[in-house]
Design brief:
The protein is mostly helical and 106 residues long. 71% of the residues lie in helices and 0% in strands. The protein has one domain (2-7, 35-103).
């Protein structure tokens, strides 16, 4: 279920106009400025960072004996891992697009 949420967030981040379709906010009207690419990217990176911090805290609690929830810890670690991998794939696509634009002849 968490994977679906992350995928939905990624789709919304990459195409803010789809947010109305998925029920998270309204669709933009023509002529309205949405969030900039930089803002969207910064928000996504902050979310990945937050997930990684949550996973680190869960690991520390499990290792110290404060928590016995192995299942919850593994879920937090896997969620952070999936978010990081998706972020890396987005980065790779951005680099590919940049390289393709740079190869274009004017």
């Amino acid at each position: 279920m968490e994977d679906i949420t992350i995928k939905t967030q990624l789709k919304t981040a990459l195409n803010p106009g789809l947010s109305g379709i998925e029920g998270k906010g309204g669709a933009q009207k023509p002529g309205e400025a949405g969030p900039s690419f930089g803002e969207t990217l910064a928000k996504s990176i902050a979310e990945v960072n937050h997930l990684q911090k949550e996973a680190d805290q869960a690991i520390e609690k499990l290792a110290s004996g404060e928590s016995q929830n192995v299942h919850g810890t593994m879920l937090a670690v896997n969620k952070a891992d999936m978010a990081f991998r998706m972020t890396m794939q987005v980065k790779n696509k951005i680099v590919e697009a940049y390289q393709e634009v740079m190869r274009m002849q004017i």
